[in-house]
Each structure stands twice: as structure tokens, then as C-alpha cells.
Amino acid sequence: MIICLSGFHWPVDLVVPVPLGVARQAERGYNQAALLARPVALANHLAYSTKALWRTRETRSQVGLSLEQRWENVADSFSADPEKVKGKTVLVVDDVATSGATLDACAAALHSASANQIFALTLARAL
Q1: Structure confidence at residue 40 as a pLDDT band (50, 70, 90)
Q2: Beta strand 47-48 pairing with 89-97
Q3: Structural domains in the chain?
Q4: Which residues contact 105 (CB under 8 A, 6 or more apart)?
Q5: Which one, of 24, 31, 12, 18, lies nearest residue 91 by Cα?
Q6: Sequence-distant (≥ 6) Cβ neighbours of residue 67 within 8 angstroms
Q7: Which terminus, N or C, of the chain has the lesser number of Cβ atoms within 10 Å?
Q8: At what angle do helices 101-112 and 67-74 cross, to 10 degrees?
């Protein structure tokens, strides 16, 4: 992911992981997206924040949901801090992209908080 990002030449200002809900974070004890995002930010000398984007509500696991259910499940479930993202190019990092619904919901929240551009990077793509 580190090498991949450097090859894109995206003008990233801030790296943020896809946030977990409070219950899922407590259950797992870690956020897998954050474990991927932090080294990507550090290796590329980019700012990193787990406070710029957060979940506003718990959502059910996307596993086993149809495409339509995935989009409904995560719609309006994220918010972003305008003080941290306004005018910035933000890279959202997640472990797996399946339908794109979670990344789209994150991007919508960042856009609403006046982020300039939003890119996404995932470790894997499920088909």
C-alpha cells in the first residue's frame, strides 16, 4: 500500500482510516483500517488522524448483505470534522472494498465537511 500510494502521485494532505463503531472496536480491540492507514501515512510523510472522521451510528456488518442493503446500511453513518479536513485532500484507507458503499459514505461525510478532494486506498477488492 505504501509503494502503491507513492506511485499514484495523489496530492494527499491527510490520511484517515475508515472508523469502526464503538461496539465493534470494543469487540475486536483494534481497527484494522487504522493498522493499515498509519504506516501508509508515516512512510509517505503525511498527516494522520483518527479524529477527523467518525461513525455517527452503529451499523450492522456488511457481510451477507445485498448491494442495495450495503448502501442503505452505511448511508449517513459518518461525520467529519471541518476544522481538520476543510480544504484538504484526504485519503481514506480501508482493508477491503466490496460494493464501495462504506468508502462512498465516508467520502460524503468528508465532502460535507468541505474536504477539497477525497481519494480511497484499500488493501483488497472483493468481487
Answers
A1: very high
A2: unpaired
A3: 2-125 (3.40.50.2020)
A4: 74, 75, 76, 77, 78
A5: 12
A6: 99, 101
A7: C
A8: 30
For the chain, give the longest Cα–Cα distance.
38
- Residue 85 and residue 115 in contact, taking contact as beta carbons nearer than 8 Å: yes
Beta bridge partners of 80: 53
- Average pLDDT on 35-43 reads 97
What phi and psi values does residue 58 have, to the nearest 5 degrees?
A: -70, 140
pLDDT band, residue 29 (cuts 50/70/90)? very high
Which residues face 76 on adjacent strands? none
114 vs 8: CA distance, rounded Å: 23
Query: Is the CB of residue 31 less than 8 Å from the CB of residue 17?
Result: yes
The residue type found at 115 is A
CA–CA separation, 6 and 95 (whole Å): 18
Region of residue 114 (phi > 0: left; psi between -120 and 50: alpha; otherwise: beta): left
